[in-house]
From TrEMBL:
Record carries keyword Cytoplasm: no
Organism of this sequence: Cyclobacterium xiamenense
Assigned keywords, A-Z: Cell membrane, Membrane, Transmembrane, Transmembrane helix, Transport
A GO term, aspect molecular function: sodium:proton antiporter activity
Protein known as: MFS transporter, DHA1 family, bicyclomycin/chloramphenicol resistance protein
């Protein structure tokens, strides 16, 4: 019973660390129209504050990977969380969209440490054959944030000023920092002989990227995982301005769609008892592509009303809870050592691609849902092509249906 309690507490803390950035993204989505009005700017300009946040996450993770390996997990973690708290307070007092974009970048530089540290600690504290299950549990905890964050953000926008969201984010991070200090294990020992010289760091990342399994699955997971970023960037404008939902209603809608990912992570536990990680990944991508094409057809022809679009989006987003944790598990499996650098590179790729896709939503913004849904389906198509190319060139194409638990061959 004590072991189960410790496992639950560990997953909860690691999940909380992982949710810092998703919570920071999701909470202020219902406030996009209010922020645009208050700062006398456009929705597309406010969307760039999301893009800057994702770019900050991508860049920051590259620095935290070597730091987590060099100094251990705790010291860089504490430093990043303090940066996040300070930047969140800065966001709360911004008076222009340019300042908000800049402060969101700094906020991301601090907050992204939680994602890297959590993934590295999973590799430190769980055996290889339990990584996928642990990551699925983290995904479950992370998936709760889209249920809580936008709903809370909607109420804050409706009843208070949007600035208060960033004060609340600072307070939440302070609570997580306290929990990490008193309850989180240290993880892997510091690698004192590890050099932090830029060319040495670049060499380590190059070594990580030379692993074909790692490179393939971070691309697959990153590209497929960017589809929800297209949804995140465009959904507030689509549902509030196009379909007439209030910020509070949008918050509840976002929470409802998050259930898709939560249910999928629970299904993933069952599927892993019968199928390999790679089988689940490619199957999820196939059905997401079919659903994505149907969504494009329904939106472009005007056939979908708001409820039909919501239903199809729900089905589409279930794939995120299946493909992403399994792709991440296959990516990290080869690294008993350098897990921090591998986690950082994986996070960099995922957020860099997500930042590009969210930026494209702003670039192609035309007042309709079409740019959002086209980019969502396009991400799945490209991820599937990368995976099929890998299977074809490695001779694994004929084995992807193979039943049985465990990771793909290294």
């Amino acid at each position: 019973m004590k072991q189960q309690k410790n496992y639950f507490l560990l997953v909860l803390i690691l999940g909380a660390l992982s949710t810092i950035s998703p919570f920071s993204v999701d909470m202020y989505l219902p406030a996009f129209p209010a922020i645009a009005e208050n700062l006398s700017t456009s929705i597309s300009q406010v969307q760039l504050s999301l893009t800057s946040y994702l770019i900050g996450i991508a860049i920051g993770q590259l620095f935290y990977g070597p730091l987590l390996d060099k100094f251990g997990r705790k010291k860089p973690l504490y430093a990043g969380l303090w940066i996040y708290i300070a930047a969140s307070v800065g966001c709360a007092f911004t008076q222009s969209v340019d300042a908000l974009i800049a402060m969101r970048f700094v906020q991301a530089i601090g907050g992204c440490v939680g994602m890297v540290a959590a993934q590295a600690l999973v590799r430190d504290l769980f055996p290889v054959n339990k990584i996928a299950q642990a990551l699925a549990m983290l995904t479950l905890v992370i998936a709760v944030s889209p249920m809580v964050a936008p709903t809370l953000g909607g109420y804050l926008t409706a009843h208070f000023h949007w600035h208060w969201m960033f004060i609340l984010l600072a307070a939440i991070c302070a609570a997580i920092l306290f929990a990490c200090k008193w309850q989180l294990p240290d993880g892997a020992d510091p690698e004192r002989d590890l050099s932090l010289r830029p060319w040495k760091v670049a060499k380590k990342y190059r070594e990580v990227l030379r692993n074909k399994q790692f490179l393939t699955y971070i691309l697959v997971g990153g590209i497929a995982g960017a589809a929800p970023f297209a949804y995140i960037a465009g959904s507030s404008d689509v549902f509030i301005n196009n379909y007439g939902l209030t910020p509070t209603e949008y918050g509840w809608l976002f929470a409802f769609l998050a259930v898709a990912m939560i249910g999928a992570t629970q299904l993933n536990h069952v599927l892993l008892n019968r199928y390999s990680n790679r089988t689940i990944v490619i199957t999820a991508l196939c059905y997401q592509l079919v659903v994505g094409i149907l969504i494009i057809a329904g939106v472009s022809t005007g056939f979908f009303n708001v409820w039909m679009l919501i239903g199809m989006m729900f089905i589409f987003l279930t794939g995120h809870g299946l493909s992403v944790p399994n792709a991440a598990a296959i990516s990290l499996a080869p690294f008993a050592k350098n897990a921090g650098s591998a986690s950082a590179m994986m996070g960099f790729m995922r957020m860099a691609i997500g930042g590009i896709v969210s930026g494209l939503v702003s670039v192609f913004h035309n007042g309709t849902a079409l740019p959002m849904v086209l980019l969502m389906a396009g991400c799945i198509l490209l991820a599937g092509l990368v995976l099929m190319y890998h299977y074809h060139t490695t001779g694994e194409l004929h084995t992807w249906r193979k039943k049985g638990p465990g990771l793909s061959p290294r």
